[in-house]
Amino acid sequence: MSTTPVIEVERLNLSYGDFHAVQNLSFQVRPGELYALLGTNGAGKTSTLETIEGHRTPTSGTVRVFGHGPDDRRTVRPRMGVMLQESGFSPDLTVRESVDLIGRLTRRTDDVDRVLDLVGLSDRAGRKVAQLSGGEKRRLDFATAAYGTPELLFLDEPTTGLDIQSRDALWATVDRLREDGATIVLTTHYLEEAQQRADRIGLMHQGTLHREGTVSELTRTLPAVIRFSLPASVPALPLQAVVDRDGKALVETFTMQKDLHLLLGWAQDHAVELRDLEAGPTRLDDVFRAIGSAPSHAN
Amino acid sequence: MLSIASSELIQIFRNRLVLITSFIIPVAVSALFVRQHETFAAIGSLGYIAAIVMFTVAAFGLYATAVTTLASRRQNLFLKRLRSTAAADSTILAGLLLPPTAIAVVQVAAILTALAMVAGEPDNVPLLVVAVLATLAMMIGLGLATAGLTNSPEHAQVTTLPVTLGVIAVASWVGISGTEDLTLLKRLLPGGSATELTVNAWNGGIAVTDSLLLLAPTLGWVVVAVVLATRLFRWEPRR
Asked: Which SUPFAM superfamilies does the UniProt record give (chain A) (predicted)?
């Protein structure tokens, strides 16, 4: 497989009047990768994504998609599928007509019935878009993006408003596209989706790339957490913990396996029941919460 | 372009309000003029009737529909959706404007044919065709420019008024009073020279070369409208 980046962003700047939405942003997305562009509200994710998609013109800097400018629609668009954050379908057209029209305009070829089946909208094919629920509109949006199996897929908050079955079905379809070598660019507010699926994550904050790396690279810098509740009178704990008035204890550790072993051994020896015990790796949520407080590690 | 156009045509026919206000009403008004042609010919001339029905369709049919459609497709992000595909901007606009334009052409042709059948044929049909096409081009250009200033289909009811009422007023003024007085002003106003050209083509009696010069101001307005449109037109709603 070629190692030439599918997307190259170099020193991208975007300003709206006085507001500098994106500042000197550089990153690359490699072939076959699932790259999650995450960030706080107003971090510049959508501005960045829409520039790569060709909806906005950079104030300065360069963006290349498959080695071409994003405004070269004839060359670039047949190879990419776009799922916008807001739907943008005509309420007076039916589901089938919408998929057929947008699909045809991508210049890819596919079978409308196959695509409708893929997103579970076959029984809604003859309905007007105006009559669809929010989740069904998201699935219609995904249908037009996945039409013709593009090499590159933009998913802008794809699962917002979807029930769990639709969510699983959408990811199953994305996984199938990835098996065929598709590259995915994802933004989402469901961090566990990014944590489970992203090969790499770009974490934006105030218009710049605050952190970038694999999930474990991002979470490694923060401690993992062990939580449990203690009964009233117990011997001294074998490790450092914060225990509140109700007996709820919290241990922050960079050596989870060792500390957990120590704690469980101690509980066994003293016949202490650790109620509501949970231990897990650092979650992306915690990386997000640390954004405001920690100094930037970017570049 | 044709796939966009055919989907646009479906949407027009599914939206009864647009269908009635933009296509039925202009035809009804025009039918009244044709039916009462003797009365209106006495006020102006048969050429004046031809001009006023042409502008009724071009303003209330084509122009108002174009502005309303573009504002509506922008507001619900349909334009942005179309721009996410491989279609070029010019293809998208052409596809969206083709159905109302085609409908306007058919309407004008039908009404003028009806007028010719009840009141006698026009003097110079090719010249009349040129006048109609130039007028429709001007109204499409003005529609694109106005769409840039229009935030929603409801807003279009206000933003289209200056042009629709303006061109009807100019067409009536020029069609009834002629261009002997205030010649330059009347010809330079949008729709003024197009009205005079239509009147000449229908009534005859003016050298074709003199009439063709009247195309210049109309085409000038096309250029002005297109320049305005490139500056004003927006593809996405203002945030």
From this structure: P-loop containing nucleoside triphosphate hydrolases
